[in-house]
Design a protein that fits this description.
Layout lengths: L1 H14 L1 H9 L7 H23 L1 E6 L9 E6 L10 E6 L3 E6 L5 E6 L5 E6 L6 E6 L3 E6 L9 E4 L6 E6 L5 E6 L8 E5 L10 E2 L3 E3 L7 E6 L6 E6 L3 E6 L5 H4 E6 L4 E7 L5 E6 L4 E5 L10 E5 L2 H4 L9 E8 L4 E7 L5 E7 L2 E8 L7 E7 L4 E6 L4 E6 L35
Parallel strand pairs: 9-13
Antiparallel strand pairs: 1-29, 2-3, 3-4, 4-5, 6-7, 7-8, 8-9, 10-11, 11-12, 12-14, 15-16, 16-17, 17-18, 19-20, 20-21, 21-22, 23-24, 24-25, 25-26, 27-28, 28-29
Helix pairs in contact: 1-2, 1-3
């Protein structure tokens, strides 16, 4: 690639030498022209390599079916300590439990149950790879320590009496937990706790630090802290709004940095772009919105792309696109990808650019029903997926799986669709 880049630069300079004279006339230095051409060639090559790598993902491991099959709703991997690789996978299941697996073998390790509360979402702590959290419909966020034999939560973060938590996240330095509630009467809350001391397994119940109560007026479906800046968090709701907050500010009004309207019920949110200065969301009716928050204080528009229905915008040859699962930002390629699929279990990888969406590749032969969750692991370029067939799959580039019988579909009526509320308002606003 290096040699090809240099040869390409030399060819351009020889064939189009008059262009270089024109560059000189505009007071641009001749010696920098080859560098610009070569850099562009490298950037294109990097993106192409990542897209080829994603398209080459194959099943490496498949978890064994549990005695009580359930939908796999959310997945997270433990954060590697220094040079070590991540050791654990945690999965939030539709049977009100959290299951933990070995990261490399997908062997089942243990299960945590919170009956009668429903567990929503799963996250590992960043500083300790044995600490795992989940929000619960009983108005708590529970924390478990994989190192301990006990099935009891080692710490419980309690909300207010009417709180039913359906989303949450833990910030980059493990200092703050934030959970989003269902709407009760007229109230919807973002609730915050001080998470310090949790890695010491202090068995106690913690009360909230406070709440944000004015920025959403319906169920808060997703919360996502910034990958680098621990004080930034984005929230999405069935009210169609995607809000970015700086929680270092003294009050909610000052904390609200921007409000973007997706025009529909938000199903997924994430950060993207260099230094993660962009946010994006997906909606329950398969729409996609992408904004550049760095443009808030300029006259430039913040909307990078708005697709009303991704199913109509992406051409899938000899197949179809039925739904979106989520998105992943690939740092090495500086590229945002979306993940979607079919009811038969095929997974579509979709490249995202300001000029639109395009299919990168399709992963077949894994799941036999709708894929509900995924987790991208950048260090080894692998992908974990979970579905309504109760299967947890590990995909790696050009992997070869030992022959295993494909599991039958367990598809049942989905409760997610009951929560969809489409908004027709075309209002888009932002706060500077």
């Amino acid at each position: 690639d290096v040699i090809a880049g240099f040869l390409y630069a030399i060819l351009i300079l020889v064939v189009f030498h008059p262009v270089v004279d024109l560059i000189d006339n505009f007071n641009l230095t001749y010696k920098y022209a080859p560098l610009i051409i070569i850099r562009t060639a490298f950037e294109m090559t990097a993106v192409e390599k990542i897209e080829e790598q994603l398209a080459s993902l194959r099943i490496a491991k498949r978890s064994s079916l549990s005695e009580e099959p359930a939908y796999l709703l959310d997945i997270d991997v433990s954060k590697p300590a220094q040079s070590e690789s991540s050791r654990f996978v945690a999965v939030s299941c539709s049977n009100k439990s959290i299951r933990v697996y070995n990261r490399e073998t997908l062997n089942f390790l243990r299960e945590y149950s919170s009956h009668p509360g429903i567990l929503n979402g799963v996250r590992f702590a960043h500083a300790c790879d044995s600490i795992v959290f989940s929000a619960c419909s009983d108005g708590t966020v529970k924390c478990w320590d994989i190192r301990l034999a006990t099935q009891k939560a080692v710490q419980i973060f309690s909300g207010y009496p009417s709180n039913v938590f359906i989303s949450f996240d833990v910030n980059r330095n493990d200092l703050i937990i934030c959970a989003g509630t269902e709407k009760v009467e007229k109230d919807t809350f973002l609730v915050f706790w001080d998470a310090r001391g949790v890695t010491n397994c202090a068995c106690a119940t913690k009360e909230p630090l406070g709440v944000y109560s004015e920025s959403h007026n319906d169920d808060i479906t997703k919360i996502c802290f910034h990958p680098i800046e621990p004080n930034l968090v984005v929230s999405g709701s069935t009210d169609g709004l995607v809000n970015v907050f700086d929680i270092n500010k003294d009050n909610e009004d000052d904390a609200l940095m921007s409000t973007c309207n997706s025009d529909s019920s938000v199903s997924f949110i994430g950060w993207s772009g260099k230094d993660y200065k962009q946010v994006y969301c997906m909606t329950h009716d398969e729409g996609f919105c992408w904004w550049d928050i760095a443009q808030l204080d300029t006259e430039e528009p913040i909307t990078l792309l708005h697709v009303l229905d991704v199913r109509d915008a992406v051409c899938v040859e000899n197949d179809s696109l039925h739904y979106l699962v989520g998105g992943l930002y690939h740092e090495k390629a500086d590229k945002l990808f979306l993940i979607g699929g079919t009811s038969a279990g095929n997974i579509h990888l979709i490249g995202c650019g300001t000029d639109g969406l395009s299919l990168v590749g399709t992963l077949c032969g894994g799941h036999s029903a709708t894929v509900r969750s995924f987790c991208w692991n950048l260090p080894d370029e692998s992908l974990l997926t979970g579905g309504e067939d109760a299967q947890l799959l590990l995909w790696k580039p050009r992997a070869v799986e030992r022959s295993l019988a494909k599991k039958a579909s367990m598809k049942i009526a989905s409760s997610v669709q009951k929560r969809v509320r489409v908004h027709n308002s075309s209002l888009k606003s932002r706060k500077k």
